[in-house]
Design goal:
The complex is a heterodimer of chains A (363) and B (530). Chain A is mainly α. Chain A has 14 helices and 4 strands. In chain A, 47% of the residues are buried. Classes of the chains: A mainly alpha (363), B alpha/beta (530).
């Protein structure tokens, strides 16, 4: 017990003041608020993203073009990003939602049906989101009331919701919305364009909005706190008087809502409410959340991390497209990225766990 | 590493003291606790030696040293004169030493025969030779008269606790055991099963095995053991032949400390009953009634497993209740889950703070404010300044040593972790606070602070339900004491003036012989004045 483990409670001794240190302090005072927003645990993601961009920029000049950044990249990550923000809450709470891709499918069809029926973009949007909320309620009820393991529960609804998407689509065919410019504007519209500037995609603004909502929810509300508590130690959370049933319902509803929204966006972008929409996206969303630093056991993770991970995945695929790398190699790269990053995180967690037990055993 | 004692049976049964297991000058320290200090005794072959002591006296640590789970800091073990050095329990097994814990490892999906021979199944060409296996196991079972009690084909998950013990004992016998230690083997057995187990133990003794028998049941020990070793605070107090001891004498030897200086109590008991539970029945309890008044510290004493923690959890809504009612401030309340209890003004600081109390990976701040999130929030937004002030106030008042409120709770020491749990409940300002073993595993200094805090809280009008297995602290702090035994309240004592002997007698001595086994708890009006 002689070694001094990291994180020991005694602070370091005050160091002598040197010019170098004051300069360092000045830099630190600028950097610190930025780091605090991103979160120290997400710094490695920022570094990965920076390296990735540096490599791609050194290979192709097209990457930094605004057409590429705002169109190809911006629009591509938005649908996945919205989905992943909702998934973050569920995973941080120590659960999982495999059904989000299927929910997106339902929402896309529902929105397309309402839009083609009424001609109102707003009603379509609301219909898609409502469909997502209902699906989330179903997931939440199964997990919270029937006490089914979240993986099993949403594996079931993953299949069932996909079926529902086909059932509500007329004869199972996609509902085209190409004739509804108001609606497709959600997916491909831009604002603030003019001069040499192509404009900011609406869909990117929606992602930013959803990310902020998710971030605020997790960080500044009692609901968010309860999610971290539930994921960190469900028994302790319950014994502290937190109503876990309500938290579980709430998080699945939020996740369903974002899945619904992303289904609407997907339909708007592809100009079609297809019951096949969103297939495979649940796995991409889950990948992004884990890449973003969420713990598989729950209790850890941030929306900022998830969004950074979505960016990393988006830049990777965008850059490889620009460089003409085969799709198969992109899949391999994505997979390796996830496994490597989680392996590194695991290694670091193990190290800090050892330090922790060493301290704890000191009484 | 260890001498192959099992391959060399004692050919010459010389009745020398070196025959059997000899423990010489064994000490073992844990952070802040000297679990064993300089313990020397021998478990002789052909003898049953009982270990007795209060919770925390060092019995379990000693067993773990014998079993190779722990290495002694100093001191030696010798078996039949050969020095032993175990790196792990497997070494101990090889040397012929077996410790059977309360919950034996049984493989659920495998039958008794294979469970007994696990690890050494007779094989033939990669397949288990069932016929040979069954012949061997049957021979063993017949030899000890257990073929009826332990059907060979029964699957592991169908076994009763008694049968599980038997499987574990049969495993030990098969491996040519020289020293067999049993840790509280009868705690889940029926009387009939106990008698059968005793018969087996005696028979093994007569075959020359050294038996170590650990139990809380004094009467049982007097019935079975040849010699009794009494431990207290990690020291060996006495080793006497069982024939020379009486129940009262044993209790007297187990007790005896002076810690009174740590317990300063101001009496602040009022007439207002803040918590009353009536006729609580559950999986763990039969008709338990008790009450806690404002300003009162009510101790709940009893052995581990008597149902105290479960009682707290039933009242708190964490464990299901079959019948009975709970009143808070005289009002009947419906508590179906812990959040209901918190809303009604009950707080519960659990025994196992790491598993049940804290979110280890989250900050001190988040852990401290967990029970008051709703009160701190406006439109679900946490008012962060208020949160910091509230949490900071109690963290400071409890003198939690942490570099900042942002520190991960898992990185604090045990005593400081416990204080974070307490800070949470102080911030919640409950009417009744249930403290379940609040001083377990923390150092003396932190203990004294927590005692002081409990006194403070009672003085401010809180009702405290104080569960502890540490008798001196129960006696030193409680205004009134309930003693529990086997899911019942076996007696109620006034705090001041109660003695350890009284509490132990109520907790341990079997009331089955008495006419009225369960003294009813008195109503507050008839209760003693604070």
């Amino acid at each position: 017990m002689s070694e001094a483990p990291a994180g020991e409670v005694d602070g370091p001794a005050t160091p002598p003041i040197s010019p170098f240190r004051t300069a360092l302090a000045r830099v630190a005072s600028v950097v610190r608020p930025v780091v605090r927003f991103i979160g120290a645990e997400n710094l490695s993601l920022v570094i990965v993203l920076a390296i990735e961009i540096a490599v791609i920029v050194s290979q192709t000049k097209f990457f930094l073009g605004q057409q590429n950044l705002l169109n190809s990249l911006g629009q591509n990550i938005a649908v996945l990003g919205v989905l992943a923000v909702g998934e973050s809450l569920v995973i941080i709470a120590g659960a999982l939602d495999i059904s989000v891709g299927s929910i997106a499918g339902i929402a896309g069809v529902a929105a397309a049906l309402v839009v083609t029926g009424t001609g109102s973009m707003q009603l379509g949007l609301v219909a898609g989101i409502m469909a997502g909320i209902c699906a989330g309620l179903v997931n939440g009820s199964i997990v919270a009331f029937l006490r089914v393991n979240p993986i099993i529960a949403t594996l079931g609804t993953f299949a069932a919701f996909r079926g529902v998407a086909f059932l509500i689509a007329p004869n199972g065919y996609p509902v085209g919305v190409g004739t509804q410019p108001d609606f497709t504007w959600l997916g491909s519209g831009r604002i603030l364009g003019g001069g040499g500037f192509v404009g900011i995609p609406i869909i990117l603004i929606i992602l930013i909005f959803v990310a902020i909502v998710g971030h605020v929810l997790l960080r500044y509300t009692d609901f968010g706190r309860s999610i971290y508590a539930l994921g960190g130690n469900a028994t302790a959370a319950r014994l502290a008087g937190i109503n876990l049933t309500r938290v579980r319902l709430g998080m699945y509803v939020f996740c369903g809502m974002t899945a619904g929204l992303s289904g609407v966006l997907l339909a708007a972008r592809t100009t079609s409410g297809s019951p096949l929409n969103g297939q495979g996206m649940e796995l991409q969303a889950i990948t992004a959340v884990f890449l973003g630093g969420a713990a598989t056991t729950g209790g850890k993770g941030t929306v900022v991390g998830t969004v950074l991970a979505v960016l990393i995945l988006g830049v990777l695929s965008n850059g490889m497209n620009l460089l003409g790398v085969q799709q198969y190699w992109q899949d391999v790269a994505t997979g390796m990225l996830l496994v490597t990053s989680v392996a590194i995180a695991q290694f670091r967690a193990l190290r800090s766990e050892r330090a922790r037990t060493r301290i704890a055993s000191r009484g | 590493m260890s001498p192959p004692a099992s391959t060399e049976p004692p050919a010459t049964p010389v009745p020398s003291p070196s025959l059997g297991l000899e423990i010489r000058g064994v000490s073992k320290a844990f952070p802040n606790v000297q679990a064993l200090s300089d313990v020397s005794l021998e478990a002789r072959s052909g003898e049953i030696l009982a270990f007795l002591g209060e919770n925390g006296a060092g019995k379990s640590t000693l067993l773990k040293v014998i079993n190779g789970d722990y290495q002694p800091d100093i001191g030696t073990l010798t078996l039949d004169g050969q020095p032993l050095r175990f790196a792990n329990p497997l070494d101990a097994h090889r040397a012929g030493i077996r410790v059977i814990y309360q919950e034996p490892e049984i493989i659920p999906g495998v039958d008794v025969a294979e469970n007994i021979c696990v690890g050494e199944l007779p094989g033939r060409g990669g397949f288990v030779d069932r016929r040979l296996l069954e012949t061997r196991v049957r021979a063993d079972l017949d030899r000890y008269g257990f073929s009826a009690a332990l059907p060979m084909g029964l699957m592991g998950d169908m076994l009763s606790p008694a049968q599980r013990q038997l499987v574990e004992i049969m495993r030990a016998i098969k491996s040519n055991v020289r020293v067999l230690a049993l840790d509280e083997p009868t705690s889940s057995l029926t009387d009939d099963e106990v008698q059968r187990l005793f018969a087996l133990v005696r028979r093994l003794r007569d075959e020359g095995v050294a038996i170590i028998y650990v139990s809380h049941r004094i009467r049982e020990i007097l019935q079975l053991a040849d010699r009794v070793a009494i431990l207290r605070d990690g020291r060996l107090i006495a080793v006497r032949p069982a024939a020379d001891l009486t129940e009262e004498e044993i209790v007297r030897l187990m007790v005896g400390r002076d810690l009174t200086a740590m317990f300063q109590r101001r009496r602040a008991v009022t007439d207002r009953v803040v918590l009353r539970a009536e006729h609580i029945a559950s999986n763990w309890h039969h008709d338990v009634s008790f009450y806690v008044r404002a300003g009162e510290v009510v101790g709940f004493a009893g052995l581990v497993g008597a149902g105290r923690t479960e009682l707290a959890k039933v009242v708190f809504g964490e464990l299901p209740r079959d019948s009975g009612s709970v009143f808070v401030d005289g009002r009947l309340v419906s508590i179906r889950r812990p959040s209901d209890a918190v809303t009604e003004g009950i707080g519960y600081a659990p025994e196992d703070r790491k598993r049940e109390g804290l979110i280890l990976m989250r900050s001190v701040l988040e852990n401290a404010s967990l029970a008051v999130l709703q009160r701190l929030s406006r439109f679900h937004f946490i008012q962060r300044r208020m949160e910091r002030r509230l949490a900071g106030e109690y963290i400071e008042r409890l003198r939690v040593r942490t570099p900042s409120l942002e520190q991960e709770v898992g990185k604090l020491s045990g005593g400081n972790q416990q204080k974070v749990v307490l800070a949470r409940w102080l911030a919640a300002k409950p009417k009744v606070l249930i403290l379940d073993e609040p001083t377990r595993g923390i150092d003396v200094g932190a203990k004294a602070e927590i005692y002081h805090l409990i006194d403070d809280l009672a003085n401010q009008g809180l009702g405290v339900m104080f569960i502890s297995s540490d008798l001196p602290e129960i006696l030193g702090l409680s205004d009134r004491i309930y003693v529990m035994q086997n899911g019942r309240i076996s007696g109620e004592l006034p705090g001041p003036g109660a003695t350890e002997e009284q509490v132990l007698a109520l907790a341990m001595v079997d009331h089955l012989s008495r006419a009225d086994p369960v003294p009813k708890s008195t109503a507050p009006e008839e209760g003693l004045a604070g």
